[in-house]
Amino acid sequence: MIPFVSVLAFIFLNFGCSRERTHESYFGAEPIGQMNLVTERLKVDSIVMDKVSSSYIGKFFFNNNVILFWDEMLRKVLLFDTNGHFLGERLTLGKGPNEVPISEVDGFSVLKDGSFIVFGGGDCIFLFDQNWNKKSSLILRKGKRISQQTLNAASNPGMSQIYDVEYEKHFTMQSYNNKLYFPIECMADNLNPALRRYYEESRIIFEVDKKTGELIKMEGRRSPVYQDYSCIGQFSWFDYDISRDGRIYVMYEPDHLIYEYNQEWDNTNTFGVPGKKMDTNYFESTNAREGGMRMVEERESKGYYTDIIYFEEYDILMRSYQKGLKSAVDGLQIYQNRILVADVDVPKGFKVIGIDDSYFYANGVIDEEWEEFKVYRFKVSEILKR
């Protein structure tokens, strides 16, 4: 007789640890679309950063009044003050006590407490404190290894091994209490973005134990809006943010709604208003090859939502969106207490990254050819008062 405990262990290792829930259970809150607009435009200033040695390929962050640039090619973080002056660099590769000892680094993020996380090859996780001291090195453990043949044939969406951390589009790593959060994508042939099942059944988030690297559970589903199309896999990604008290906000690229969850992933609130003058005439593919051929063209030419960030200081959430190729500008929505208070035109590629006492900061120009960094900012007082 096989011990009952052994059977449970087998199920846990091979099918992950997320509870079975219906797609509908993640989207139960009645949507609201309230508006109380306080401004129609923003005065946006720009900060030109000092010239530095960089690949000029990467992503901006903001932390403790410092602008950070994660250089994806050189695998280092460049630091600037809020006037654009270069402060130095951190997080270089190497075997030193506060270096990253792997050559393949997939992503970097600033966590809510001001600490830092690096994710790399072999599902390695490195955690650094606010002073750039390395505190721990982990391996993301998502279950018993499976063969490529098993992966290709797998069709059970609750099987954790068929998912990889998604780091190409919206690679946002977060933490809350003793958990780390990673966006994921399904790698199984039988559950891919060309199939309707993918949007109904595949999970979107790994919750991972911050001390051990063990997968706690998989959560989330993709928006019901995907059921309105035959297939728009070119816009299958999402972004999310987590408040300091654990509320989870999720947005999907083609969906004007924002979904708010508690730590049990109950959909406590749903809100949002469509962005202005967005070209949402999406190409609907009939197979993976067709969708792949149109991927780049669609993402460059059509309108979709690109980024969200939540600020406890004002109880506001900001969502950026791309209007489309025919527009000279993009859009930024600002919600306070789930009510839209501003929907304004902003420069192309504008995404808010942080706040200090006077300004909100947004990523700006990253010009590889002219070797120039530029960051945008606008005054807090233009939107809200404390």
Describe it.
The protein has 386 residues and is mainly beta. It has a domain at 56-139: Beta Barrel (Thrombin, subunit H), CATH 2.40.10.480. It contains four helices and 27 strands. It has helices at 4-15, 148-153, 196-201, 288-301, and strands at 31-32, 35-39, 45-48, 58-63, 66-71, 76-80, 86-90, 105-110, 116-120, 124-128, 134-139, 163-165, 174-176, 179-186, 205-209, 215-219, 238-242, 248-252, 258-261, 267-271, 304-311, 316-322, 330-336, 339-346, 351-355, 359-367, 372-379. The strands form six sheets. It has a five-stranded mixed beta sheet, with no helix packed on it. A five-stranded mixed beta sheet has the order 2-24-23-22-21, with no helix packed on it. Strands 12, 13, 14, 15 and 16 form a five-stranded antiparallel beta sheet that branches. Residues 1-18 have low confidence and may be disordered.
Largest beta sheet: strand ordering = 1-20-19-18-17
Q: Under the CATH scheme, which class of the domain at 56-139?
A: Mainly Beta
Radius of gyration: 21 Å
Q: What is the average of the pLDDT values?
A: 90
- Major sheet characteristics: 5 strands, mixed
Class computed from helices, strands and strand pairing:
mainly beta
Work out the strand percent. Answer: 35-45%
Which fold name is given in CATH as the topology of the domain at 56-139?
Thrombin, subunit H
